[in-house]
Design brief:
Blueprint (H helix, E strand, L loop, with lengths): L3 H32 L1 E3 L14 E3 L13 E5 L5 E8 L4 E5 L6 E5 L7 E4 L25 E2 L4 E5 L9 H4 L2 E2 L5 E2 L2 E4 L5 E2 L5 E4 L2
Antiparallel strand pairs: 1-2, 2-12, 3-4, 3-11, 4-9, 5-6, 5-8, 6-7, 7-14, 9-10, 12-13
């Protein structure tokens, strides 16, 4: 039968082993979180995201992209960028973009009614020329239809974002991850707020 002293030593050992296991699991979790994450570079998603923010890379559900998701993709020059999904396959999109606040309308496939994209972050980010060509690029004045298996992406910082208005549509298989959860900085840890919505067009 163990003495009280021996029982105390055994309890301390158990606590020590438990603490080491807990520390190891936390360390592994932290490394995994950083390994499967994306760091925001630049100001194209201000003020929703800022330079240096780190987002969880949800690569496991990139095949279930929804309107207004944040995603990571790459430019034709193989530069990683983070943008917001505005147009999904089948959408008919029109854009009135001058020096004033942009007006974007979306008519989902199969519907007869168009909706205005309400993104309050755009209100303080005017800029850009006439938009868009049938390829979704800046420069035209007509409406365009988002092709099957492609997306039309725009940054929340409308006047300072190189996105689909520069590169055209982004293929579904070029989207590397959904990015709707922020892990750093810790003061803003959690789901990234989504300021965008579809509202009845006037």
């Amino acid at each position: 039968m163990l003495s009280s002293y021996e029982r105390g030593i055994a309890a301390i050992r158990v606590l020590g082993i438990t603490a080491l296991i807990g520390f190891f699991l936390l360390a592994v979790g932290a490394v995994a979180a950083l390994a499967f994450s994306v760091q925001v570079k630049g100001t194209s998603m201000n003020p929703t995201l800022t330079h240096g923010d780190r987002l969880q890379a949800q690569f496991w559900n990139r095949s279930s992209i929804e309107r207004f998701d944040l995603v990571e993709t790459r430019t034709p020059e193989d530069v990683a960028i983070v943008k917001r999904v505005i147009g999904i396959p089948g959408d008919t999109v029109t854009v009135e973009s001058t020096a004033q606040v942009p007006v974007v309308t979306v008519r989902p496939e199969g519907e007869s009614v168009a909706y205005r994209v309400a993104n309050p972050e755009w209100d303080d980010q005017p800029g850009g020329g006439m938009c868009c060509t049938v390829e979704g690029r800046e420069g035209g004045t007509g409406e365009f239809v988002v092709p099957e298996d492609e997306y039309w992406l725009v940054g929340d910082n409308w006047g300072a974002s190189e996105d689909s208005r520069v590169y055209g549509f982004f293929a579904a298989d070029a989207i590397e991850a959904k990015l709707n959860f922020r892990i750093l900085p810790l003061g803003r840890f959690g789901s990234v707020p989504n300021p965008a919505s579809l509202v009845a067009a006037p």
